[in-house]
Amino acid sequence: MKRILIDYKKLDPQVTNLLIETYPDGYGDEDIISFRNLNGEFIEAVELQTEDTLYLIKISKSLSHFIANFDENISEDIEGLQGESIEGPSLELNLEEENED
């Protein structure tokens, strides 16, 4: 299994959705992992596991704000797009979960 230390801003949309599903109400002290990186810097992160990868997502004030306001921000983005006409091919945003059995 791969282990990746990453900032939430660099997550792809699928992993971002999994992050929001895993921590819908934010994360607590029990979810935080603390360690020192190779440079000796103190890092705090939350774990997010997919089928083949364990992500350690760096904690910052902006991560907690992002999780807390995710639904509100998405709603505002969608409302902003309603009524606008876009020329060219249409794009669909598929946010459905894929069940892996």
Poorly predicted sequence stretches spanning 5 or more consecutive residues: 85-101
| Global structural class | alpha+beta
How far apart are the first and last residues' alpha carbons, in Å?
A: 19 Å
Helix content: 25-40%
Q: DSSP strand (E) fraction?
A: 15-25%
Mean pLDDT: 74
How many strand units?
4
Radius of gyration using CA atoms only: 16 Å
- N-to-C series of helices and strands: EHEEEHH
Largest sheet: 4 strands, mixed
Describe the structure.
With 101 residues, the protein is of the alpha+beta class. It has one domain (2-72). It has helices at residues 13-22, 61-68, 70-81; strands at 2-6, 32-36, 42-49, 53-58. 8% of the residues are buried.
Which tags fit this structure?
single chain; 101 residues; alpha+beta; 3 helices; disordered C terminus
Task: Provide a brief overview of the structure.
This protein is α+β, with helices and mostly antiparallel strands and 101 residues long. It contains three helices and four strands.
Structural topology:
Blueprint: E1 2-6, H1 13-22, E2 32-36, E3 42-49, E4 53-58, H2 61-68, H3 70-81
Parallel strand pairs: 1-4
Antiparallel strand pairs: 2-3, 3-4
